[in-house]
C-alpha cells in the first residue's frame, strides 16, 4: 500500500517541477487579479503598487511559514511556538494588507464614500484574516502532504532495503548449511565406498556451480531448480548403502516460471533427514505446475524411532521466513502426518 501511494504521488517530490508548482499555486490564488489584468473581468484595484505590496506580504507570510516555522518549529515538536508565531504573523500580515488596500494614501479613493467606521474596519480585517488564512493553510497543507509523502517513501525504501538484506542473509545461510552436509556425506563415503567418492565430488561441484552462479539472481527458472533438486538427490543416493523407493514427478511445463532460488530445497532436506531408510521406505517429490500456481509435494516414510531434533537447524525456519517475505499472502504450507508417513505441500501463486 505504501509503495502504491508513493508511486502515485512521486511527481510531487520531483524538484524539476518545483518552480512550476509554485507558479501554479500563486496563479490559482490570484486568478481574479490575472483575469482583471488581461481584461476578462473588471479591475480589482487601480494601483499596481498596492497589488505588488499585498502580493509581497503574502509571499513573506507563506514562505516564512513554509521554510522557517514548519521545519524549525512544527517538525521539531514545538507546536505551541509554531501555533502562536504563525497566528501572530497571520494577524500582522492581514493588518498590513487592510492598511494598504483600504486605509493608506495609496488605496483606491472613493470621493462619495464616507470614511470607514471602526466596526467596518474590524469587519474588513476579519474578512482579510479569513482570506489570508485560507492562502496560508493551503500552502501549509501542500507542504505537509509533500513531507508526508517524502517520509513515506523513505520508510518504504528503508523497509525494502531491510528486507533485501534479510533475504540475502537467509539465502547465504543455505550455502554453508548444504556444504556442511554434503562434505560430511562425502567423508562418510570415502571410508565406506571410496571408489564412489570421485563421482560425488563432481556432482557436488555441479551443485556448487549452480549456487554460486546460476542462482545469483533474485528469481531463477523453475526448471533449473528442479534439475538442482534431482542432482541433490543423486548426491544423497551415493552416500547411502540402503536405498528406498524414490519418485520424482513433474506435471506441467516448468520452463515458463521464475521462483526464488532454493525455496524447495529445505523441504527435501527435511524429508531426507527425518525419513526412514530401508526396503519399505519411500520418498515422493512431485511438482504440479499450472499457469498461475505451483504445487510442490514432498512425502516420506517416518522413522520407527523419532529423530532427535537438532539444535541450531536453519532449514525449515529459514524457508518459512523467506516465503513470508517473498510470497506474502501468495503461499500456503500444508502438513499431513500419519503414524507412518509425513507429507508437506507448498502452494505458490506465481
Derived from helix and strand composition plus strand pairing, the structural class reads alpha+beta
* Shape type: rod-shaped
The description of the largest β-sheet is: 5 strands, mixed
What's the helix count? 10
Tell me, rounded to a whole number, the average pLDDT: 81
Radius of gyration: 36 Å
Order of helices and strands: HHHHHHHEHEEHEEHEE
Which residue ranges are poorly predicted, with pLDDT under 50 across at least 5 consecutive positions?
A: 309-313
Tell me the strand order in the biggest sheet: 2-4-5-7-6
Strand content: 5-15%
- The level of helicity is 55-70%
How do you describe this structure in short?
With 350 residues, this protein is an alpha+beta fold. It is built from ten helices and seven strands.
Overview of this structure, please?
- Strand 4 and strand 5 form a beta hairpin.
- The chain has helices at 2-8, 18-29, 31-37, 48-74, 79-103, 118-192, 197-214, 222-239, 265-274, 315-326; strands at 220-221, 245-251, 258-259, 282-289, 293-301, 331-337, 341-349.
- The chain starts with a helix and ends with a strand.
- A 5-stranded mixed beta sheet has the order 2-4-5-7-6, with helices on one face. Strands 1-3 form a two-stranded antiparallel ribbon.
- It is built from 10 helices and 7 strands.
- Mean pLDDT is 81; it is low at 309-313.
- It is 60% helix and 13% strand.
- By secondary structure, it is α+β, with helices and mostly antiparallel strands.
- It has 2 domains: 2-159, no CATH class; 193-349, Heat Shock Protein 90 (2-Layer Sandwich), CATH 3.30.565.
- The longest helix is centred in the middle third of the chain and has 75 residues, at 118-192.
Amino acid at each position: 500500500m505504501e509503495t502504491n501511494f508513493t508511486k502515485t504521488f512521486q511527481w510531487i517530490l520531483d524538484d524539476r517541477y518545483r518552480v512550476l508548482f509554485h507558479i501554479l499555486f500563486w496563479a490559482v490564488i490570484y486568478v481574479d487579479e490575472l483575469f482583471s489584468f488581461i481584461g476578462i473581468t473588471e479591475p480589482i484595484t487601480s494601483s499596481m503598487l498596492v497589488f505588488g505590496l499585498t502580493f509581497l506580504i503574502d509571499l513573506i507570510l507563506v514562505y516564512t511559514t513554509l521554510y522557517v516555522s514548519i521545519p524549525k518549529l512544527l517538525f521539531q515538536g514545538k507546536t505551541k511556538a509554531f501555533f502562536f508565531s504563525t497566528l501572530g504573523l497571520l494577524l500582522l500580515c492581514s493588518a498590513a494588507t487592510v492598511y494598504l488596500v483600504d486605509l493608506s494614501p495609496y488605496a483606491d479613493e472613493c470621493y462619495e464614500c464616507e470614511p470607514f467606521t471602526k466596526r467596518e474596519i474590524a469587519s474588513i480585517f476579519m474578512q482579510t484574516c479569513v482570506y489570508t488564512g485560507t492562502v496560508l493553510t493551503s500552502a501549509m497543507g501542500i507542504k505537509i502532504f509533500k513531507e508526508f509523502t517524502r517520509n513515506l517513501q523513505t520508510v518504504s525504501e528503508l523497509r525494502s532495503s531491510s528486507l533485501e538484506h534479510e533475504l540475502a542473509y537467509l539465502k547465504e545461510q543455505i550455502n554453508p548449511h548444504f556444504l556442511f552436509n554434503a562434505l560430511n556425506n562425502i567423508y562418510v563415503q570415502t571410508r565406506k565406498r571410496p571408489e564412489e567418492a570421485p563421482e560425488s565430488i563432481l556432482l557436488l561441484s555441479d551443485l556448487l556451480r549452480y549456487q554460486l552462479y546460476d542462482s545469483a539472481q533474485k528469481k531463477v527458472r523453475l526448471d533449473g531448480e528442479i534439475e538442482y533438486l534431482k542432482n541433490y538427490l543423486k548426491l544423497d543416493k551415493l552416500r547411502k548403502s540402503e536405498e528406498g523407493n524414490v519418485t520424482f514427478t513433474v506435471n506441467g511445463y516448468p520452463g515458463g516460471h521464475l521462483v526464488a532460488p532454493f525455496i524447495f530445497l529445505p523441504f527435501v532436506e527435511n524429508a531426507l533427514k527425518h525419513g526412514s531408510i530401508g526396503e519399505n521406505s519411500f520418498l515422493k517429490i512431485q511438482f504440479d505446475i499450472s499457469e498461475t500456481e505451483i504445487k510442490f509435494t514432498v512425502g516420506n516414510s517416518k522413522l520407527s524411532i523419532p529423530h532427535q531434533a537438532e539444535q541450531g537447524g536453519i532449514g525449515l525456519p529459514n524457508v518459512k521466513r523467506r516465503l513470508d517475505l517473498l510470497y506474502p499472502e501468495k503461499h500456503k504450507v500444508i502438513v499431513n502426518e500419519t503414524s507412518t508417513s509425513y507429507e508437506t505441500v507448498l502452494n505458490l501463486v506465481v
